[in-house]
Each structure stands twice: as C-alpha cells, then as structure tokens.
C-alpha cells in the first residue's frame, strides 16, 4: 500500500487528510508535538485496518525528521509527503512593528526550514516511488497583504517558492503547494482569538487534496476552493 508522511496530523486539516487516506488503505506516518492527542488520532485511524505510526516531536529537530522518514521506509517507502505543521510567529498575531523577531525565526524554522529538511530526507524514497508527491500547505496570506499576518504570510510565501523550485528541479515528482482557504482550526483561533465567525470544517477541504492525488496535475500552486468548484 502507498505510504504518506503527514506533519501536524493530530488535528485540523492534517488529521482530516490522514483519515481520508486511511479510508483508502494508505499506511501512515504521523507527526505532531502533543503525544497524547497524536496517539488518540492514530488509534482512531487504525480502525481502518491500515498501519499507522505516530511519532511525536518537533519538525525543527533533524533527528525527528530522520525518524519520520525511517518509519516510512519500514512501511515500504515514502509515496506522499505532506508538510502541514505550521507556526504563526505570534499568538495572537500582531503588526510587524510588534512582531518578535524570535517569533518570526520560529515561523520560518517550522514552516520553511523544517519542510525543506524533511523533503531532503525523503527525496531518495520519493524518487523511487511509482507516483511520488510532495504537498505543502500554504495560505492566502502568502499572496495577499493582511494586517498582522506579515510574519506568517512571509514564511508561507517562502514555502511556496521552495515548492515551485522543487517542482522544477524534480520533474519526476509532483509538488503541489495548496492554499486550503478559510478553515475552523486551532491555528486560526490562536491567530485571531476574537474572530468567532463560522468557518468551514477542515474535512470539507480534503476532497480538493484527494483530487490532486487522483488526477496528478502539474506541479504548482493550487487553491482548494477552485479545485472543489471544478469537481
């Protein structure tokens, strides 16, 4: 069966995608920082009859990234790498004049440096896979200027560029940067705690991600709302 590594997989979009893949028979290597929440998610996913390995840790730690890829190798190799783990840089978000530089460094380390580090670990296995793919979770803040979203948006813009270059350098793979659009997630609640407007459940975005896997369009940046409308 195909094997996916998904970071930030204990909740939100990562958890929803993991469930959809488990329902399709994928084996999974899941990452998140909270071991208890991640363990609960893994136990629920095992009910689909697939193999699920849960490794709690921080994606900024090189040993943790190595362990994730090693576990995927034990299951047969890496067919799909999903970089979903994210850091905001400040919680709640603040204007650039107030953004702690250490917070910006953390956002860049999690959202960009760690994502590239994991790709580098997984590349040999991805190249050997029949249909190797990398999926990075972007944001509309990477392309639009929203007050207080500067640090997070800058990190996601950098991630988009890395994905674009990786797609050019690795023509045998598919590399998709996906803007999921608005979602009701803990990350958004931490970013803007005073905003209680209703937002879509992350599970509603998953069909867009599955469409990429099913149809394997060219490497590039895709918006989930457009993918959903075209179905």
TrEMBL record:
Superkingdom to which the source organism belongs: Bacteria
The residue range of the signal peptide is none
Describe the family membership recorded for this protein in Swiss-Prot or TrEMBL.
Belongs to the short-chain dehydrogenases/reductases (SDR) family.
Going by the UniProt record, its keywords in alphabetical order are: Oxidoreductase
Q: Name one GO molecular function term.
A: oxidoreductase activity
**Keyword Aminoacyl-tRNA synthetase: yes or no?**
no
Q: Which organism is it from?
A: Streptomyces coelicoflavus
Know the name of this protein?
A: SDR family oxidoreductase
PANTHER family linked: DEHYDROGENASE/REDUCTASE SDR FAMILY MEMBER 7B, DEHYDROGENASE_REDUCTASE SDR FAMILY MEMBER 7B
Q: Which InterPro entries match?
A: NAD(P)-bd_dom_sf (IPR036291), Sc_DH/Rdtase_CS (IPR020904), SDR_fam (IPR002347)
CDD domains given in the database record: SDR_c
Gene3D superfamilies referenced in this protein's UniProt entry, alphabetically:
NAD(P)-binding Rossmann-like Domain
A GO CC annotation recorded here is: membrane
Per its UniProt record, what SUPFAM superfamilies does this chain match? NAD(P)-binding Rossmann-fold domains
What is any Pfam family matched here?
Answer: adh_short
């Amino acid at each position: 069966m195909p094997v996916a590594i998904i970071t930030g997989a204990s909740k939100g979009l990562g958890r929803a995608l993991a469930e959809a893949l488990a329902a399709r028979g994928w084996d999974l290597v899941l990452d998140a920082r909270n071991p208890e929440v991640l363990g609960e998610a893994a136990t629920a996913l095992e009910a689909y009859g697939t193999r699920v390995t849960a490794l709690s840790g921080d994606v900024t730690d090189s040993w943790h990234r190595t362990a994730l890829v090693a576990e995927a190798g034990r299951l047969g190799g890496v067919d799909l790498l999903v970089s979903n783990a994210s850091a905001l840089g400040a919680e709640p978000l603040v204007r650039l004049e107030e953004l702690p530089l250490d917070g910006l460094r953390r956002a860049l380390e999690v959202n960009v440096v760690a994502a590239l580090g994991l790709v580098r670990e997984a590349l040999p296995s991805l190249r050997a896979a029949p249909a190797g793919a990398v999926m990075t979770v972007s944001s509309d803040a990477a392309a639009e200027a929203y007050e207080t979203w500067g640090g997070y948006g800058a990190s996601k813009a950098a991630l988009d560029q890395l994905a674009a270059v990786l797609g050019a350098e690795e023509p045998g793979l598919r590399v998709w940067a996906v803007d999921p659009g608005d979602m009701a997630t803990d990350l958004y609640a931490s970013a803007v705690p005073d905003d209680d407007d209703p937002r879509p459940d992350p599970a509603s975005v998953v069909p867009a991600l599955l469409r990429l896997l099913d149809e394997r369009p060219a490497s590039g940046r895709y918006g989930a709302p457009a993918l959903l409308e075209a179905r």
